[in-house]
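Case study 2.
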Amino acid sequence: MKKVQWQVIGLLYAILFSVTIPAPAAAIPGRGTLSGTVTAPEPFQAAEVFASNAEMNIVFLVYTAGGKFRAVNLFPGTYEVWAEKSGFQCATKTVEIQPGENTAVDLSMTVGEAAAPQTGGMGMGAQQGSRQPVEQVDYDELFPEHPAREMLEETCIYCHGANFISNAPKSRDQWNRALARMTSEDQAETGYEGAMVPRSTYSEPQWESLLEYLTENFGPESRAPGREALRGCAASTG
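Prediction:
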């Protein structure tokens, strides 16, 4: 599978770190695209751009390259969009993502530290608010290397972010129900049209592998609660 090489700051916290992850899939029918620019009065590299859909509890995170960004395969709906970068502030903008269309939005950062991280509520990508103290650990410590991790990076982490998973520990049965909902095509159950991830994405052995990985590393008895990743994965800037 094709890989893309990242160099990001945000959740990586240093441009010197690099993470190789699978490239997002081709355009999915019924989804939309978000693109634009981020400007600031002073030079910056790799600002984080968040697109948060509170109704679906989904956050997309991409990084700027040359001041530009692009996020693909977003569910239609209303999103709050903003940029984050140490030493800068950015106002939030509201946009509507339409199926099969690109929505353009330009963000402007000003010099100054934000009063509180806008990514406080869901571990990554929630609205601005108070943030409880957490232990920040290396990404590989929070997400041990395993084939199941790659599947999570391609699907769950791509939309929800790494710390959404770590801050929501579940039993094996609860993780099974969460995966079932994510792959369900029942709009009455999920509230949106089409599955987040097609059930055919996972073979039965892969499904079991995911459940074992999630239960072991993000179950009620795991060390995950109260910990967040210093280094994380996110959607490609495309």
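Confidence is low (pLDDT under 50) at residues 1-25, 119-131, 231-238.
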